[in-house]
Amino acid sequence: MNLFKKELKFERLSFFYWTAGLSLTVFLSMMAYPIMKDTGQDFSVFLEAMPKALLVLFGMNGLSISNALEFHGIIYFYVVFGGILYAVTLGNRLAAKEELLKTGEFLLVKPLKRSAILLYKALAGIFLLSFLVLLLHGTTLLSFTMYAKEEISHLVLLKESFTLWLLMLLYFALGFFFASSLKEEKKSTGISMGITLGTFTLGLFYDLWDSPALLRPWTPFRYFPVKDLLEETSLPLLYILFLFLLLGGLLLASFHFFQKRDLRM
């Protein structure tokens, strides 16, 4: 448990900066909603004239500013991307921190198995990501209460927060896996960030392509499209199960390879 607290203490500044940045993105964007709504008709004409590729790139494909939920859906596009970037870097940093700081020998002489060390690190990461999503959800509710004089659909906002949490856990596990299994931290960071940006790019092609069904399993960014969260009452169970399989597989593989490889002291 001391290691768990130690990891939380070490990550507190990074957690604060990312949480503050994402929360301000939501709050300040919703602050602009009343102004955008007043000019909604003129802005809708402007959006209709924009190429589809630009709408996709800025998260506005299939959404409008006609109501607060759709406007927030555009913001959610950026929040998901930022949250996933934080999650994958957190996974890399937690699993490889001792090697980066040259403190591995000090940690391994303690009466802790390698599996226990990695477990505390994983739990610390999951706790931080869960707390971040709770704070973001609270910020979203506050911004809707203050700036969206409309009835709030708590179900939609809960679905957005829940799917954000799932996606962040998946990419955390991705970074955690590569940092646990590869000796060089730069290589693990490069590969995990490359996969993250690659799946994000596939998500953009998913929105551009007229028949994207084949792409969807390869890009978790589109497991839960914002438009579906707004229109559907339930979440796609198949993709939730697939995501949990990926998450469990990555974490189990992390423990397997971490116990077998040589650590740089």
Automatic annotation (TrEMBL):
Question: Which Gene Ontology cellular-component terms appear in the entry?
Answer: plasma membrane
Q: Where are the transmembrane segments?
A: 15-33, 75-96, 117-142, 162-179, 191-209, 237-258
Molecular function as annotated in GO = ABC-type transporter activity
Q: Which organism is it from?
A: Proteiniclasticum ruminis
Q: Which Pfam families match?
A: ABC2_membrane_2 (PF12679)
Keywords, A to Z, come to:
Membrane, Transmembrane, Transmembrane helix
Name of protein? ABC-2 family transporter protein
